[in-house]
Amino acid sequence: MWSRPGLFLLLLLLAATAPPGGGSLTHSVSRRCNDTISSVYEGEGVVTSPGFPSRYDPHTSCSFTFVGASHQRVRILFTEFNLKEPPEHLRPHERCLHTDWVAVYNVLNGSRKQEIDHFCGTSVPNSVMSASSDLGLESGRQLADGKCHFVFNSSEARNGTIYSPNPEGFYPLDTTCVYIFYGLPGEIVRIIFKYFDVEGVLPCNSDSDSDYLEFSNFPSADRKIPTFCGYMTPNVIHSDSSYFRMTFRSNSKFGGTGFAADYQFLDNSRHPFAIKRVIGAAFVNGAHQSQAKLILVVSVTSLLIIKSLQSDVPV
Prior knowledge:
- The chain is an all-beta fold.
- The chain contains 1 helix and 18 strands.
- The chain has a 6-stranded antiparallel β-sheet with strand order 10-16-12-14-17-18, with no helix packed on it.
């Protein structure tokens, strides 16, 4: 379990006027409702609805609050889920408003609740995580405990995979993650995205209340590379040099399931041309998809090639 002082995770179950349909679920250990669970005593465990695996009673309200140390975060992994199905005629965003539901919140400063998401029906939800998490990476080196700040050195690993926080679940709200790449002299970095679900709209920044992904060839901002979110998804990104920085930022309003990308350090010194390329965004609108490419080519003409061509011309 992971959290920090003044920031807790609250899991709330609210049942309406009828119990859930379907059979009983696998047996598990029950806890009393309205319980507070501290990582001082339990690093991990199981919480269930009242009476689980039997049906819960109508008009049930049950909450669990998870509290951790300063360097920890809270992760909720749903294993079984069987609530009363919502009415079929409702729109997707209304489904969980008129039936039994489970909601997950960040609790800020000990009192203010920040909703992560609502769940209902019988589909097992994605895992959720408290704010400012930094899990999800098997490669790279974390600079500080509890901070989502990772360094990738070519001397340690020439390739690997990057995930947003809480892979296979919703990334946490109000989070900033920084990924810095250091190549050897003459190397560049290539990042290939294989999944992208970052909530936002153009221009993909804080002004549009968007979560976004940002790239830079410098420690500061880089205007040559656009930010990405929503329907503007990155495909393949190349750095200009051996240093590269990627920043992921989520706000406190909406979330998504994040991104997954493979990175690779490439030896650029072998190429006869100096090519700097950003293969930009794939704009998706229904079934139509097109790709925007920005290519800057700086060519170096070889005098040896010119002389060779001239020698083949008859005098």
